[in-house]
Design brief:
Blueprint: E1 5-9, E2 14-19, H1 32-46, E3 51-55, H2 82-104, E4 109-113, E5 116-118, H3 120-126, E6 130-134, E7 138-140, H4 154-157, H5 164-173, E8 176-178, H6 179-185, E9 190-192, H7 195-210, H8 214-229, H9 232-246, H10 249-261
Parallel strand pairs: 2-3, 3-4, 4-6, 5-7, 6-9
Antiparallel strand pairs: 1-2, 7-8
Length: about 280
């Protein structure tokens, strides 16, 4: 439990991180970012969690970065000298890394979005593997409406999820993308009636993923990310190395036996990442 979210993992290996500041529209103050990064990294490193579901509380998923973050300047926003600007760059890189961890995690990340997914919240959602939303959800690159370019990954990730021309329209106008349009474009995998149905749907998907071989799931995520970021030839070359590393006849035998016996398969979790790395 933190001031910003609650995190728990059940016996099936489903981790659930729930934003819990509905009275502030689940806005993200500076301390949120390292807390979020460290929580996701710890899930990745332990190997116990097989899938992560990120959801929220209240009317809106999140209104993004808290606006008081930008009030009064401060060292985080100091651009008065070349040295200060160099420090700003390093600070921004570290903020970016707080959402990069979703992309690099060994486990799939599912995002359940109700109401507004605004500004930095869309940066977060774009870094997840799968997104689901409620019928009243909307998505907004809010940064352009407050005089800045979005800078935590949405401009880089969203064009790989939906048509680049649509992303440019959102980035230049700050207009809202509706749930129905998000489904049509493929930004979300399903639209549900309300927050309860949304979370139930996300958890059903999470249970399906958690029942699969975590080794094969991690390998699939690595391969998909490689294919997204590289050409086909390079991605296929990586796949030959990846498959030679993770191909496991024992995992396959258990999956086939469970299917034949009409039972749930039993797979070992991924090993924890060694301490000190």
């Amino acid at each position: 439990m933190t001031d910003f979210f609650h995190l728990a993992t059940d016996d099936a290996g489903i981790a659930h991180l729930q934003l819990n500041r509905p009275e502030r529209m689940n806005t993200m103050a500076p301390p949120f970012f390292p807390a979020f990064r460290d929580a996701v990294q710890a899930l990745n490193d332990s190997g116990r969690a097989r899938v992560l579901v990120i959801s929220s509380t209240g009317k809106h998923f999140s209104a993004g970065m808290a606006l008081d973050t930008f009030a009064g300047g401060g060292p985080m926003l100091d651009l008065k000298s070349s040295r200060a600007r160099l420090g700003f760059q390093e600070g921004l890189r570290r903020l970016m890394a707080c959402f990069d961890v979703l992309d690099s995690a060994r486990l799939p990340v599912l995002c359940a979005i109700q109401g507004g997914c605004i500004g930095g919240a869309l940066d977060l959602a774009a870094a997840c593997d799968l997104r689901y939303c409620t019928a009243d959800a909307f998505f907004c690159i809010q940064e352009i409406n407050v005089g800045m370019a979005a800078d935590l990954g949405v401009l880089q990730r969203l064009p790989k999820l939906i048509a680049p021309g649509v992303v440019r329209e959102l980035a230049y106008t700050g207009e809202r993308l509706s749930a129905a349009r998000a489904l049509e474009l493929g930004l979300v995998n399903a639209v549900l009636a309300d927050a309860d149905a949304l979370l139930a749907h996300a958890m059903t998907a999470a249970r399906s993923i958690a029942a699969k071989s975590p080794l094969a799931i991690a390998g699939s995520k690595l391969a998909l990310n490689q294919a997204r970021d590289h050409g086909t030839a390079a991605a296929l070359a990586q796949m030959t190395l990846l498959q030679s590393a993770i191909f496991d006849t024992g995992e396959m035998a258990e999956a086939i036996a469970a299917w034949k016996d009409k039972r749930d398969p039993r797979f070992d979790p991924l090993p924890p990442v060694p301490d000190g790395l």
